[in-house]
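Risk register update: the risk of archive-format incompatibility is retired. Evidence:
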Amino acid sequence: MFKVRSLMFKVSFLIITSIIFLGCQKKEIKKQETPQIIPVKVSRVELKELVESIEYVGNVKAEDEVIVYPKVSGKIIEKIKQDGSPVDKEEIIAYIDRDEVGLKFERAPVKSPLAGVVGRIYVDIGSNVGTQTPIALVVNMDKVKINLDIPEKYLSKVTLGQFAKISVDAYSGDCFMGLITKISPVVDLITRTAPVEITLDNPGHLLKSGMFAKVNLIIEKHSNVPVILKESVIGKEPDTYTYVVEDKKAVLRKISLGIRQGPYYEVKEGLKEGDAAVIMGQQKLYDNAPVNAEEENAIEVK
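Archived output:
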């Protein structure tokens, strides 16, 4: 009788243990089947104006400048102009005492071939000069120019009369506007670039010949186009994607990108204004993954 009771107890224990074990297993399976909600941060697609530009550096140069040479040899006996002096065309810069034997003493003038400013006087009184000796540099600073070498891949987007933004270290924060006035019809076979000239009006002669300039050349502008932050973009063209939150799920979208400006990309295909593109948390995402999305302004996306 005792053995029967003992056997019944053991059987009951095994049955209860199995039920408890199976119950725990079901709970564990149920827990594993519940997908994890992934926290993400999103930014709404907006309509903006984007511009694509290329940046170069160059040197400011007077539109007209000339080095003045004497027509005779001799010794400098008088300087009429100094560095920075305004000068008219044919106005005298200096006088030379001609050293030719047998000639009656007569001062020979050195004249400016153009109107402008004396940029530099290269000689002192008493200097012996010849016809190959530079006397002065004369510049016309009413207009200045900057010469650049543009890669051939951009030449189709560069046109005469196109605007360029110029900045120089001497006037930090100020912007000067110039125009493309020359485009070479010939591409250099070695560098694959073509010379381009930008001309600027220079009232007050703020820009000096020789200044180092930074040039921003706008080559394309798109207005009222949908844009996303660069953090949203996955992959590289032509295989680019982004996750969009819809009904609290992350949906993978293939997108086509256009021009870029700063942190923004133009979206040509795949997104529309108002879409919530994921900008943080993509590493754990998969298509149709449940998400808890928060906008940059902390508004929950539903």
